[in-house]
Amino acid sequence: MNRINAVVPSGATPGNAVPLQIRAGGITTADTVTIAIDGATEPAITRPGADASAIWDFVFRQNFRQNFSLVPGKDQLYEGIAPHSQALTVYLNPVARQAIESKAGSMPAGSMIIKEAHSAAGMLNASLIMYKITGFDPANNDWFYSTRQANGSMGASGSVAGCFGCHARAKESDYMFLVSPLAAPEPNAAAVRDFIEKQNYRLTWRLWPGTSAFQPSGAPHGTLVSIWVNELAYNAIRNRPGQMPAGAIVLKENYNGERVLQATSIMYKSQGSNPSGGDWYWLQQTAAGQVAAEGRVQGCISCHQQNSANDHLWAGSIERFPDTKAAAVWDYVARQDYKSWKLFPGTTAQMRGNAPHGAFITTYVNEPALNAIEKKRGAMPPGSILVKENYGTDRNLAAVTLMYKSEGFDPDRNDWYWMQRMADGSVRAEGKVSGCINCHTAQASNDYLFLGRLQ
Ligand code: HEC
Ligand code: HEC
Ligand code: HEC
Fold first, then answer.
1. Confidence of residue 354 (pLDDT cuts 50, 70, 90)
2. Distance 252 CA to ligand 2 centre (A)
3. What is the mean pLDDT of the chain?
4. FRET pair for 408, CA 20 to 30 Å: which of 105, 131, 209, 300?
5. Nearest atom (ligand 1) to Cα of 80
């Protein structure tokens, strides 16, 4: 018996009675046999089964780093949270991306999410995958988990309790933390509350970056507050698009001094619900879960609209970073009230400084800069700003020197923009100031900084 394997060229014209001719050894068969060719533009790909080596082999053959998409809102090497290491890059295959964009409700079979975990310096440590296979593990939504070390050795794979045990916190969004196939809720109390409860927000959301649990607040929001953000809101706080995207939710728990919950205040960005008020839907509920106010609540809006330039938000800035021009930068740090920022860790107000920076110095850092210092990031991210007040021996302010990292501004020197502004408001130097750079270059391996180590 002879066996013939025929490959239909991808450009073949579709039809249900296409003549089939086979040529071999100079002989062509008669076209009495027909086949059907369907109109699919993509040749069907055979996906791997529940076999870790076959799965990794498949994704490498698919060339996933080029052909899969990044998770919306996340760059390469973004800052992850425990237990996954810091510098993460997450890819979605087309099936997964399509389900998320169309808000399919759950992820279809064939969805693949690959997460690459790197060291702080950007070296690949391990790759992790979640891959959905129909019928593989119905109790846990059919996800196959696998870890592959950078050296190619395979870690735990299959229905790994160590993985799904934690990912089950995000059961409602099909075990995924970073992206959700769920549609955003309608702007009414029942729908919003239901959505948030199912999201298990205390286990799957993050605190507003730079804030802490039970941090001190004041009227009207309780003595202590914890401010939670969903992933869409979190991305906006990191990327600062100026506005929160549709679907963003900020939830504030209001506690009394004894950490007993008093109320929850929610802001939910629901597209089209309130165009003149930034499309915010407001919801206040009591500790017992009763709705105290909802919708376009004047009481909330009247106070929050003082921050309309920051999309009505108080807890932190999502404003776009300024242009690299003295006026824009100064306007920005003044509006951000830089004196309310933290001091460079390990320094004190009016501590002794060195020439050329004044006898006494006070150095403030904004949130991205602070985070990079505390977490020993190696370098500061774009948007980092350091404002140093330089005082004379008489302790009068003489000048302010400022460093601002702006992506693409000066790639050869870590993108720092430099500025010296005198006490009278005149700007003595700004931009790629060689005087500043020549001396700070001594610290080039520490992102040009003197006051503290970033490694
Ligand atoms: C203790 C909880 C926990 C455990 C255990 C855990 N993960 Fe995760 N996983 C997370 C969190 C949180 C995120 C979001 C990560 C981020 O961006 O910081 C995540 C994200 C992911 C993602 C990207 C898709 C998504 O859900 O957002 C993949 C893929 C992934 N994890 C795979 C694994 C694998 C494989 C294992 C087991 C080897 C594992 N995880 C174990 C908490 C966990
Ligand atoms: C008198 C001013 C004032 C009023 C009225 C007010 N808030 Fe706030 N709100 C604040 C301040 C200040 C913060 C910053 C965090 C903190 O210290 O509590 C805040 C924070 C929040 C946050 C966290 C996101 C952010 O903007 O920082 C939410 C959510 C919130 N408020 C919801 C509400 C809701 C819902 C109402 C109406 C029921 C309301 N607020 C009424 C002043 C107000
Ligand atoms: C002769 C060397 C020298 C020159 C020139 C210099 N700096 Fe500095 N800079 C330092 C030192 C040293 C520190 C650490 C604080 C201190 O000892 O005063 C510092 C600290 C800083 C800091 C705080 C962050 C850090 O690096 O620790 C900023 C911001 C800063 N300088 C900005 C500037 C700007 C802007 C200029 C140019 C207008 C400039 N510096 C010129 C030596 C210099």
1. confident
2. 8
3. 91
4. 209
5. 18
**CB-based contact 176:107 (threshold 8 Å):** yes
Least Cα distance to 273 among 301, 313, 232 occurs for 301
> Which among 291, 292, 311 has a CA at the least distance from the CA of 301?
311
Closest ligand 2 atom to residue 222 Cα is 18
pLDDT at residue number 310: 92
Q: How far apart are alpha carbons 163 and 199 in whole angstroms?
A: 18
Phi, psi of 152 (to 5 degrees): 95, -10
Written as one letter, the residue type at 297 is V
Identify whether the C-beta of residue 228 lies closer than 8 Å to the C-beta of residue 251. yes
Determine contact, residues 311/278, Cβ cutoff 8 Å: yes
81 Cα: distance to centroid of ligand 1 (angstroms): 9
pLDDT at residue 31 is higher than 80: no
Query: Which region, left, alpha or beta, applies to residue 369 given φ > 0 means left and ψ of -120 to 50 means alpha?
Result: alpha
Q: pLDDT (tens digit, 9 = 90+) per residue, 282-341?
A: 999 999 999 999 999 999 999 999 988 899 999 988 988 999 999 999 999 998 899 999
- Cβ atoms 431, 324 nearer than 8 A: yes
Atom of ligand 2 nearest to the CA of 265: 35
Our answer on whether the CB atom of 266 is closer than 6 Å to any ligand 2 atom is: yes
User: If you measure from the C-alpha of residue 254 to the centroid of ligand 2, how many angstroms do you get, rounded to a whole number?
Assistant: 10
Amino acid letter at 146?
Answer: S
d(CA 330, CA 407): 18
Counting ligand 1 atoms within 8 A of each CB, the residue from 68, 163, 230, 234 with the most, and so the one to mutate, is 163
Residue with tokens 């999410």: 113
